[in-house]
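Extended Data, panel c. Modelled sequence:
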Amino acid sequence: MLSFQVFCNFVAENDLKMISKNKIKYVRSLEMKKYRKAEGVFVAEGHKLVGDLLGAFECCYLAATGKWLEQNGGLVQSGALKRVEIDEVTEEELRRVSLQEHPQQVLAVFRQPVREAALREVAASGLGLMLDDVQNPGNLGTIVRLADWFGIEHVFCSAGSADIYNPKTVQATMGAMARVQVHYVDLLEELEGLDGTVPVYGTFLDGENIYGKSLGNRGVIVMGNEGKGVSEAVAARVTERLYIPNYPVGRATSESLNVAIATAIVCAEFRRR
């Protein structure tokens, strides 16, 4: 717990002030991709999420209740909030600026980092995920969280996939985006640049049962669009077609699995071997 004197000094040093109407308008505008892209920033909310991202992304603005600022002395003393524009807000003001239905004491604006990685380098020594037009922000965020859990550090997305900096995606990652890098690339170009020995895995209804398939510890796992699956052009470059069977075989079931659930099953099977 931050002492009252240290808290007072922190308030004075950072010139904490009431949040302005223009600042509320600015933060709320970041719900739209065109403004996030123009400003090169994104919004994260909640104690755990903001805490996780503070160590991985540059923070340029923070709005928090006095209680949160007082309770987070470690962040103050470590200098994580030095030179960051800070507004101390009431719970009512936080509700006005927040993009969430139920705000959680703190909101931060972070800069979008410039990150580059080549699929051929990632897949040569480990596993990489490739998402072919996964459009639901919640699905993308969940997949990034799954990648973090299963030790996959790079996710390559098509231009038609959801934006990693969409507030719904950011929340769904539960902080995993601090450890998993997401890249927007030309999927075909990246696949064509692979060494011919690198396996490209994908899930299809006519694939081979994943539970009996020999799986390696390197390569690319391709997951497709929620409704259409893997596109024809990308599918043509898949070398290992996998199938997740229902149980019992032959029983009438749902038409397909949610892409995030399918990703979890596939990644778990790779790591189980």
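Residues 4-111 form a domain with the 60s Ribosomal Protein L30; Chain: A; fold (CATH 3.30.1330.30). This feature is highlighted in the accompanying rendering.
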